[in-house]
Amino acid sequence: MKQFTKISRYEDGEKSVSVLLDGEESELIFLDKSNAPADCNDVFEESPHAYCIIYSRNDWDSFKQAEEWLQALWKADVVRNKAVILVGNKNDIVRPNVVPSGVGKQMATRYDCKFIETSVIINYNVDELLVGILTQIRLKLDQPPEHTHHARSSSMRKRSKSPLGNCGPTFKKYRGSRTSTSLRVKGLLSKVWARDSKSKSCENLHVL
Questions:
Q1: Helix residue ranges per DSSP H, 43-125
Q2: Domain holding 101: CATH number?
Q3: Which of 116, 168, 177, 194 has the most CB atoms within 10 Å of its CB?
Q4: Global confidence as pTM
Q5: Residue 106 phi/psi, 5° resolution?
Q6: Each residue's pLDDT tens digit, 64-86
Q7: CB neighbour list of residue 150: distance below 8 Å, 6 or more residues apart
Q8: Is the dihedral of CA 93, 99, 101, 104 positive or negative?
Q9: Domain total in the chain
Q10: String of b and e for 183-193 (b: at least 16 CB within 10 Å)?
């Protein structure tokens, strides 16, 4: 059973959090980088183990900025081997949020990253996020080299632009026959099932 405790401190603009997970204590150091970069590699002196992209659920502009971060990470091929978590904060707002939960989840699914909603004010899902970050880091570090190599070869072909730029299904044109129609239907269902599977797993921070 997973257990955790946390001790936070601030030093030189960094926030340090100690997390106990599966009997092993780890220290997470958070660096606040608020501006979306043109190249994420220019932001950090050393490549971090995880990226936590946070937006406010009552601020559409912050959601757009979060998308810019995800685009930069995607183009740099970071999502494949680093933990990337999209966080919708301010889930405590009583009035309807500007950014619905489904929209955040959909974007996380398309960028192959994780998704969680939190509220720092009422401490909703904050501990779950910390444990999820550490879990994702460990899972990514434990990936076998074969998986990493296969993911690299299959993903590099689509890193030149955002996955949102081509989110609709595309099909080759077949001449009218029942066989060709069934192939198109089968292709559509495969895409839908794959998308639904990713959508369900993007909120599970304990699996890749």
A1: 60-75, 101-110
A2: 3.40.50.300
A3: 116
A4: 0.71
A5: -65, -40
A6: 999 999 999 999 999 988 999 99
A7: none
A8: negative
A9: 1
A10: eeeeeeeeeee
